[in-house]
Design brief:
It is a single chain. With about 675 residues, this protein is α/β, with parallel strands linked by helices. It folds into three domains: about 375 residues, no CATH class; about 50 residues, no CATH class; about 150 residues, STAS domain (Transcription Regulator spoIIAA, 2-Layer Sandwich). It is built from 27 helices and twelve strands. A six-stranded mixed sheet has the order 7-6-8-9-10-11, sandwiched between helices. Strands 1-2 form a two-stranded antiparallel ribbon. The chain has a two-stranded antiparallel sheet with strand order 3-12. Strand 9, helix 24 and strand 10 form a beta-alpha-beta unit. Helix 4 packs antiparallel against helix 5 and helix 14 runs parallel beside helix 16. The longest helix has 30 residues. It is elongated and about 105 Å long. The termini are close together.
């Protein structure tokens, strides 16, 4: 029963014949819709004024929720252990990633320090470990090298050959960080977290795989012991490695290979012995300690020419708000770099946070994550940090080591702060081949070649997108590769939309349900030879409107015993319709081909609302709109058999009286908030 504006409209089904084998169950004989009292606008405003503002504060700062209920005995030991473990892992990685980004080592430590403090306040994930990561470092170096020509001359950012160029590079890195922060804050404020789904899994997988190869190959120069110019394409990089092979230094090579072997052994130790599950995360700090000790004690820098990190500025990060403006003549390239880094780092952070939340039974709000990442990068840009995001490896360690709350992030940041204040002179002895080994072993897990075989079995279009993105990033440039993958994905999406599947429905034996005849192997159950039930399995829009109309017109001559005279359109799957699709549906319903009668069954609320707003609903006859496919089929069969008094699809005959007219049924189109189906 529908109550609308004081009127009551019965919404029922086509009555079953007494001798029918498929009798409609009594409990489904009617749909009851009850009115819900919704406060008017004035009452809603009064109601809103009394809502406590503290809830808004708690939603904006998630740390308030866990700090109010913090259990010191249960949570503090776990948070301390987790924070220290991740911090120990983050120190050498931060120095390594800074070198990859082309900025001084201290910038990497700043990026692992300040943004983490800000994220603890506003981030919604207790397991996401923020800081510098390999892919962002790669994108930053690639973008800024193009924006600042000649900057690749500085092989070691800590001891630059051209300090002025290095200073411009450092300033640009901070400017990219503030641009990324602004992007996140705008998206988070507008609640646009759903944009995280714009890049499909094949594109992300291909990008990560190609990025891992580019990163590893770019670090080989430190293992081989000689420098090569910065290039975008993998083929040029390999050529330069081979062309400069005469500069090979065997001592650097031996040390680098030794560090890689040691890192892999420690990383895989938990696989051999479950008791060593916490040891796997200690590989980077172990290599850092051993390599620093050997280089310092053996005087390898002076005696053997082993290249080390060099000077690292001690102390807490400087205040760099004055670096934000002006952007300079290279601002277009900075915007492009910030856009790429923003998209990639956001996808990385959200995917990590959601994956770990699912494992640990938590909830992650994408919009809140945007705000958290935005504030984190804003704080980082104010204190000499380059763009930060969640780290795959460190986040996994933070989860498996038992972090209970965001306090683990504070402990992690505190350890980085101690290193900045007291231990930077120690890390200047760390050899570059050890940094390269840490980076190479860290990105191995990003390789995702098995996905190609999976996509080849599941979707050849997605496989083509993966291959195009992979080879585009690898052989042309990262931004071009991502653009190729995104463009192909949109093209294939349009193709899928332009060629929808049309399912011919038949009645399931013993029921009033209609299903795909081909899928369920149904042979003419429940419909006459002149009645066809068709479902458009997808949206009806400009891309497929003409094809859909042609398909419907082509049904006219498809009957087995003459012409098809009745077509029932199942509207349940029409989840979207644009103006072009509406015009086609209007033409089919109101001006069908001669001799063909078209009716609509099971329309959704959105479809009915669109028909009303488009002026189509009021022109439909009393026998063209039905609640169920079964009602429409029975009506068409009765009309075909010449039965008089066909019943209105939006009425229910009871005790011999006819139901509501179609004009009354149009009152069903109420706002969703004012009705409730029970």
């Amino acid at each position: 029963m529908i109550r609308s504006g004081g009127q009551t409209v019965s919404l029922g089904f086509y009555p079953e014949k007494r001798d029918s084998q498929h009798t409609l169950p009594e409990e489904h004989a009617s749909i009851s819709v009850q009115k819900i009292d919704v406060p008017d606008k004035k009452n809603l405003l009064q109601f809103a004024r009394f809502q406590p503002s503290w809830r808004a504060v708690e939603s904006l700062f998630p740390f308030i929720e866990w700090i109010k209920t913090y259990n010191v005995r249960e949570c503090l030991p776990a948070d301390l252990i987790s924070g220290l473990t991740v911090g120990v892992m983050a120190v050498p990685q931060s120095v390594s990633f800074a070198a990859m980004a082309g900025v001084p080592a201290a910038f990497g430590l700043y990026t692992a320090f300040v943004p983490v403090l800000a994220y603890v306040l506003m981030g919604s994930s207790r397991h996401l470990a923020l800081g510098p990561v390999a892919l962002v470092s790669l994108l930053l170096n690639d973008g800024l090298t193009k924006a600042i020509p000649g900057s690749d001359i500085n092989e070691n950012p800590n001891l630059p050959e051209d300090p002025e160029l290095q200073a411009r590079f450092n300033r640009a890195a901070v400017q990219v960080s503030i641009l990324v922060a602004i992007l996140y804050l705008v998206l988070g404020t507008l609640r646009l977290g759903f944009l995280c789904n714009m890049l499909s899994k094949p594109i992300i997988s291909a990008f990560l795989t190609s990025g891992a190869i580019i990163i590893s190959t770019s670090q080989v120069k430190y293992i081989l012991g000689y420098n090569i110019p910065h290039v975008d394409r993998i083929q040029d990089l390999l050529y330069n490695l081979v062309a400069n092979a005469h500069l090979f230094k065997w001592r650097e090579f031996v040390m680098g290979v030794a560090w890689i072997v040691l890192l892999l052994l420690i990383k895989n130790a938990p696989r051999w012995n479950k008791k060593l599950k916490t040891v796997g995360a200690l590989g980077p700090i172990t290599v850092a300690i051993v390599s620093i000790t050997l280089t310092w004690a053996g005087h390898l820098r002076s005696r053997s020419g082993i290249k080390a990190v060099g000077h690292i500025d001690p102390g807490l990060p400087p205040f760099t708000v004055g670096w934000w403006l002006p952007l300079g003549d290279n601002w277009p390239r900075l915007l492009i770099t910030a856009g790429l880094i923003g998209a990639v780092s956001l996808l990385e952070a959200i995917s990590i946070a959601k994956a770990l939340a699912e494992v640990n039974g938590d909830h992650v709000n994408a919009d809140q994550e945007l705000l958290g990442l935005g504030v984190s990068n804003l704080a980082g840009a104010a204190f000499c940090a380059y763009p930060s995001t969640g780290s795959f490896a460190r986040s996994a360690v933070q989860s498996t080591s038992g972090a209970k709350t965001g306090l683990a992030g504070l402990v992690n940041a505190a350890l980085i702060g101690v290193v900045l204040l007291c231990l930077t002179p120690v890390f200047r002895h760390m050899p570059l081949n050890a940094l390269a080994a840490i980076v190479i072993t860290g990105v191995i897990g990003l390789l995702d070649f098995p996905r190609v075989l999976f996509l080849l079995k599941v979707s050849k279009m997605d496989c083509v997108v993966w291959l195009a993105t992979f080879f585009g990033c690898l052989c042309i440039s990262i931004d071009v590769g991502l653009a190729m993958g995104l463009s192909l994905g949109l093209v294939f999406l349009f193709v899928r939309t332009a060629f929808p599947k049309f399912a011919s429905l038949q009645q399931l034996p013993g029921s009033v349900a209609y299903r795909d005849a081909e899928l369920y192997n149904l042979q003419g159950e429940g419909t006459g030879s002149n009645v066809v039930v068709m479902r458009i399995q997808g949206p009806l829009c400009f891309a497929n409107a003409a094809r859909t109309k042609e398909r419907i017109l082509g049904l006219k001559d498809g009957g087995e015993e003459g012409l098809i005279r009745h077509l029932v359109l199942d509207g349940a799957a029409m989840d979207f319709m644009d103006a072009t699709g509406l015009e086609v549906l209007q033409a089919v319903l109101l001006k069908p081909p001669a001799g063909l009668r078209v009716v609509l069954a099971d329309p959704s609320h959105d479809l009915l609302d669109l028909l009303k707003r488009g002026g189509v609903l009021q022109h439909l006859g009393p026998d063209q709109l039905f609640v169920r496919v079964h009602d429409a089929v029975r009506h068409c069969e009765d009309a075909e058999a010449g039965l008089a008094g066909a019943v209105n699809g939006f009425s229910h005959q009871q005790n011999g009286s006819s139901g509501a007219h179609i004009e009354e049924a149009k009152e069903l189109l109420l706002p969703r908030s004012s009705i409730d189906c029970v």
